[in-house]
Amino acid sequence: MKMAGKNKIDIVSDIVCPWCIVAYKRLEKAIEDLGLQEQIEIEWHAFELNPMMPAEGQNLQEHLSQKYGTTLAQGKQSREQLKQLGAEVDFKFDFFDEMRMPNTKNAHILLDYALPFGKQTEFNLRLVTAHFSEQKDLSDPQILAQELKALGLNAEEGLERINNTEARKLIDTKEAHWKEMGIRAVPTIIFNQKTALTGAQSIDVYKKLLAEP
Question: What pTM, to 2 d.p., does this model score?
Answer without folding.
Answer: 0.94
